Amino acid sequence: MRSIVKFACTALALIVARPALAFPPAPEVAKDQKIAFTSLNTENKKLGAGVGVMNSDGSKRVILTKDGAMEMDPAISADGKRIVFVSIKEKEMKSELWVMNVDGSDRKKIMDAPEKMLTLSPMWSPDGKRIVFSRIDPEKGDPNLGAEVMVMDADGKNAKNLVKGLMPAFSPDGKKILYTTIKDGEEFDPRLHIMDADGKNDKELLTTRSLMGSFSPDGKRIAYIGADAGKKVKPHVYTCKADGSDPQQLTKSDDGEFGVLWSADGKRIFFGRMKLDGPPKDSAIWAIDANGKNEKQLSKSDGIDMLGGFALFMLRRGGGPTQPPEKP
After folding, report:
1. DSSP annotation string for 139-185
2. pTM to 2 decimals?
3. Fold held by 2-17+33-314
4. Domain boundaries, the chain
5. Looking at residues 59-63, what average pLDDT do you find?
6. 169 - beta bridge partners?
């Protein structure tokens, strides 16, 4: 596991398609949106990492995972009924994908990753029939060689590799996939790419540091995590048009932001905020209007709450999942 987290901490601590018309809506969208997140209680060493859900205003926060488990990177289906998440067994170096109802019932394992491979950041297709995810081989060292984007049926069958990369996400019509690739070089240099859902017609979307992309519900804009050039940078929330033009920085805090998720109506963007200096005990999920106004902290706990795609950062170099990340 240490070889896995060595790459993970280094990567996340630093930090096309044609012009799109509005995509058709998903077949069914949940009326009352919930947010799924990974929760880490730094005061309880018996708790590895748990899957939680809360309302979009931060109310009714519930942890669905029992103590001692290591479950993370949850994503809720478009109809709001199911959650796909990652389960990791450290002793066996085993990674699995599971699904369950949004209340935590009817848990089912749908996929075992190959031995010593780490599966992360699963996301549903809009119609709920497919799941796209990342798979990392820590033995390869280089992120581009050791990471790949996979897609499979929602029952875990017919899995196939699409491209080298990380943190994929479907477009609202299910025809495109956003993902992150890492450029070669001494500095961590991520780029957002976009491709057809079958892996064809791959294009670099942005020429600046960018990762963790997510389409707005109408498909017109993309939210992502961006950062300036240089070694010591602070990652923040940005948006751009679906063709990569008109980049806009939304957050400007002294902390770092990781992970983005649009509200169902496209008016708000949820994101994770973590202090980059000192223990991240106050890390939480926030929301901001799509125009960059009205920041608000949503989750409040004694530990760390993180959106999907945050698991890499949580697994610190040289430590277990119950310890906070090192200062970058």
Report:
1. GG-SHHHHEEEEEEETTS-S-EEEES-EEEEE-TTSSEEEEEEE-SS
2. 0.83
3. Neuraminidase (2.120.10)
4. 2-17+33-314
5. 92
6. 178
